[in-house]
Design goal:
It is a single chain. The protein has helices at residues 7-41, 44-70, 84-113, 123-150, 153-184, 190-194, 196-223, 231-240, 274-291, 311-321, 352-369, 398-412, 443-460; strands spanning 247-256, 259-269, 296-304, 325-334, 337-346, 373-382, 391-392, 417-425, 428-437, 464-473. With 476 residues, the chain is of the alpha/beta class. The protein has four domains: 7-223, Alpha-lytic protease prodomain-like (Up-down Bundle); 231-304, Cation efflux protein, cytoplasmic domain (Alpha-Beta Plaits), CATH 3.30.70; 311-382, 2-Layer Sandwich (Alpha-Beta Plaits); 388-473, Alpha-Beta Plaits. It has a four-stranded mixed sheet with strand order 7-8-9-10, covered by helices on one side. The protein has a three-stranded mixed sheet with strand order 1-2-3. Strands 4-5-6 form a three-stranded mixed sheet, covered by helices on one side. Strand 2, helix 9 and strand 3 (296-304) form a beta-alpha-beta unit. Helix 2 (44-70) runs parallel beside helix 7.
Length: 476
């Protein structure tokens, strides 16, 4: 089961790789710059930022590898695709963030309470942090655009990291500013203000811890297939409004990288045709796509009995389920007993035993589904399979046409038969004819006369296997 990537998915993969690649280069530049300036100035705040940027470099590289793998199409071993590699990479980033924060907190507490280190808040220290803020603002915006466009959690995680870098860098600048003020303005508080750099490092650590917790929680939720908040309810409400959907059953959701997989069931009227049921399922799928664009959707339709469904409709539904056709359904209720008469259409080539077996089968299904039925009388009749494929010989069988008209008029009345068509099937014939009836006659009366016409014609015309009488109200 290997699927080929579409042009749209190839374009998305290219955009994501480009964004992730630019992020790697930006992280490498910032890490190198902060590390050099941090060592030269002795600023723990800048060193903490260098460690943070170093972590961002690792995270950006992991993201770059993840987006390359996650966009591979589904195959036999990964039927849902490779999208979860993005979520796994985000989990690795979270672990690295916690480890880095632990080191920063340890070093900051040591400097605040146990060791004094001289900080040189030079122009280079301020300059490197300002440059860092500018780069982080630019790349976080770039990553957010790509993440929103392609629904990539890995790129969104990177963007979240770099947007928090802006705030943490601002905290470090504040700490360096306080150290500079202690050296040049508030000399008496110089020793106390010297600790501001370590305090700012603690601020960076707590910011990163908070972001790491949020990222880690989201990542674990996706890896454990936790449904996105509120999405199932939105899908259920939208699908329930589709015409033909009686109710929405179970809705199951899971994320895999940028993709959302939806597996849901909807209840439909069991009397609907297969084509209508399929059309309802397609409408539901389109509705889900509007709520969750790009989702992979599987719709399961469950046939349900509609409230106040008539017994006749239920009988037809059961016959349709058994791939049989019934008509002339009559139901007779006597206290708690229900008797059913129906006509079952079968193919011409079946033997009597085969036709009887079909009748027995549908009678059993009817009793299983409707226990209130106590008796079923089934009339077996030919469906006339293949009759319509005969050769039209009307023009060559004028004598036969005249005979049909004469016999029909004897049953229905003078000058009532017209538009006779005769078809030949090897040694047999089939006849269709139009016949005028009085307007006030009931359907039952018309049916009785049509039956007598059919019986008379088959009795008097050898080889006649089928008669179709089209009843028309007389014009006068």
């Amino acid at each position: 089961m290997t699927s080929e990537a579409s042009p749209q998915s190839l374009s998305a993969a290219h955009d994501k790789k480009a964004a992730a690649g630019n992020s790697v280069f930006a992280a490498l530049f910032l890490t190198s710059m902060k590390l050099v300036v941090g060592i030269l100035t002795g600023s723990l705040g800048i060193l903490a930022e260098a460690a943070h940027s170093g972590l961002d470099l690792v995270a950006a590289f992991i993201t770059f590898l993840a987006v390359r793998v996650s966009d591979k199409p589904a195959d036999h071993d990964h039927t849902y695709g490779h999208g979860k590699i993005e979520n796994f990479s985000a989990l690795v980033e979270t672990v690295l963030l916690f480890v880095t924060c632990a080191w920063i907190i340890y070093e900051a507490v040591r400097r605040i309470g146990f060791q004094t280190i001289e900080i040189d808040p030079s122009l280079w220290a301020f300059l490197v942090m300002v440059i860092s803020i500018g780069v982080d603002v630019s790349r976080s915006r770039m990553l957010y655009r790509a993440a929103r466009k392609h629904h990539s959690q890995a790129l969104e995680a990177d963007a979240l990291h770099f947007s928090t870098d802006v705030w943490s860098s601002s905290v470090v600048i504040g700490g360096l500013l306080l150290v500079w003020l202690g050296k040049h303005v508030f000399h008496r508080q110089a020793e106390l203000l010297q600790k501001a750099d370590a305090v700012s490092a603690l601020g960076v650590a707590f910011i990163v811890l908070f972001i790491s917790y949020k990222l880690g929680k989201r990542t674990v939720d996706v890896l454990l297939d936790r449904a996105p908040d509120g999405l199932a309810q939105k899908i259920s409400e939208a699908a329930g409004a589709i015409e033909g959907v009686l109710s929405v059953g179970q809705v199951r959701l899971r994320r895999s990288g940028p993709s959302v997989f939806v597996d849901m069931a909807v209840d439909v009227d069991r009397n609907l045709s297969f084509e209508r049921t399929h059309a309802i399922a397609e409408s539901v799928e389109a509705c889900v796509q509007s709520v969750a664009p790009g989702a992979d959707v599987v719709i399961h339709t469950d046939p349900r009995e509609v409230e106040r469904e008539t017994k006749a409709k239920r009988i037809r539904a059961i016959a349709y389920r058994d791939q049989m056709s019934v008509h002339n359904i009559s139901l007779h209720e006597d206290r708690d007993r229900v008797l059913v008469d129906l006509h079952l259409e079968v193919d011409d080539h079946l033997s009597l035993q085969q036709a009887h077996d079909l009748a027995t089968h549908i009678e059993k299904d009817l009793r299983d589904d409707m226990p209130e039925i106590t008796q079923i009388n089934t009339h077996i009749e030919s469906r006339g399979t293949g009759i319509g494929e005969g050769v039209d010989v009307t023009s060559r069988e004028s004598a036969l046409v005249d005979k049909v008209k004469k016999l029909t008029n004897k049953v229905a009345g003078a000058s009532r038969c017209h538009n006779v068509m005769v078809r030949r099937h090897a040694d047999n014939y089939s006849v269709s004819l139009h016949c005028h009836f009085e307007k006030q006659l009931s359907i039952i009366q018309v049916h009785d006369v049509s039956t007598r016409i059919e019986e008379r014609l088959k009795e008097r015309i050898p080889g006649l296997v089928r008669v179709l009488v089209h009843a028309e109200p007389e014009s006068r």
